[in-house]
Amino acid sequence: MIPHLMKTNRLNPLTILLCTLIGLLSGCQRSAKDFTVSGIVAGAEGQTIYLENIGLSSVTLLDSAKVGTSGKFHFKRPRPDYPDFYRLRLKNQWINFAIDSTETITFTADAKSFATSYTVEGSDDCTAIKAITLAQLDASQEIAHARDEYQAGTLSDSAYRQRIVSAAEAYKEVARKYIYARPMSTAAYFALFQQVDGMLLFDLYDKNDSRAFGAVATSYNNLYPESPRSKHLYNLALQSLKVTRNRPELNLEGIPTKEVEMIDIELPDLHGRTVKLSDVAPGHITLLCFTAYEAEWAPALNLTLGSIYEKFRGRGLVIYQVSLDDNVHLWKNVASNLAWTCVRDPESVYSRYTALYNVRNLPTLFLLNRHGAPVKRVDNPDRLESEIQALL
C-alpha cells in the first residue's frame, strides 16, 4: 500500500515546471497591480510625509507615514489605469512625480531642500519632471522679482511685460526639449501645464505653443484614448488649433492713430442692455475682471471679489466683470447672484476686447484709475486688497 500511495502523489517534472510558471505569473500579476514609492529623507525623522494624487482639478490625499529614525519611508498603492501624477509632501515642500509603467520609484532627499535637491531612481520621466520643475521655479522667481520692481515703481509697464515674456520663454526652451523628444511621456504632459501665479507658461492661443499642445495631445490620444487626461488635453488642443488658425492677422499700416486714456468695452448685461465700461468707470476706482464662470477656480474668485467689493464699495470701488463663457445659461445663473456689473462677450475666446487688453489667461484683472485708464494688471488675486487700498 505504501509504495502505491507514494506513486500516486508524486508530481512529474513537467507538472512542477508548470506550477512554478503559474506561480511566477500570478506573482507578477499581483505586483503589476501596485506601485511602490520609497526612499530616505535626511533630517526628517519623526515627521509626517504625505502621498497625494494630482488630479485634473484637485489634489487628493492618498496616504501618510511617519519618517523612520533612519529617514526611511515607504508607500504602496494601486497602480492607476492610465499614466497619472502624484507628489510627496513634507510640510510645505513637495516633489512631483508620475506613474506609468513603473512599479518602483526611490527618492533620496534632505528635509531642508526637499523639493529641489532630491535624486530619483527607477524612472527617467521622473528625472525629467525634476528638471522641468526647477525650470518652472526659475521662471517663478524671475517673475516675482519683476513684479516687486514694477510695484516699487522702478520698472515700466513695457519692461515688466518683457521680463515676464522672457522668463516664460526661458522655461519653454527647457520644456520643449522633453515635449518634442518624447511627446507621449508623462514629462511632456507635465511640462505643458506648469504655471506661475495661475498663468500657464505655455499659451493655448499662441501659434508656437499650440504646436506643443498638439504634439502631446496626439500622442496621448493614440496611446490612451480612454484616459480622462487624454480627452481633456485633446479638447484643449482642438480649441487652441481652432483659435490660432482662425485668428486674423492684424495689419495696422495706414490706420490713423490717436492717443486714448480709456480702452472702452461695450457688452450686454443680464437683461440684454449694452453697458459701456466708460459709463461705469469715470469717477471711480474700477476693477476690470476677465473671467469664465464655468472654470473651476471661478467660485473662489467671485467670493474674493465679493469680500473686496463689500469692503470698498462705499469708498468708490466698482467692478466691471467680463465673462467669456460659452454657456449663456450658466453665466446668467451665476451673474444674477453678483452685486456688481456683469457682462458677457458672445465671441468668447475670439473676443476682440481680450486682444485689446492683451488677455492671455483667465482670470485677468486690471485696476483702472478714476479716469478709466488702466494703471495696473494684478496677477495675483490675493494682492487685490492692498493694491486697491493704495489707489483709494
Automatic annotation (TrEMBL):
Task: Please state every residue range assigned to the domain named DUF4369.
Answer: 35-124
One of the Pfam families matching this protein, by short name? DUF4369
Supply the InterPro entries for this chain.
AhpC/TSA (IPR000866), DUF4369 (IPR025380), Thioredoxin-like_sf (IPR036249)
Which top-rank group of organisms is this from? Answer: Bacteria
Q: Name one GO molecular function term.
A: oxidoreductase activity
Q: Where is the Alkyl hydroperoxide reductase subunit C/ Thiol specific antioxidant domain?
A: 262-372
The protein's name in its UniProt record: Thioredoxin domain-containing protein
Q: Which organism is it from?
A: Tannerella sp. oral taxon BU063 isolate Cell 6/7/9
Taxonomy of origin reads: Bacteria, Pseudomonadati, Bacteroidota, Bacteroidia, Bacteroidales
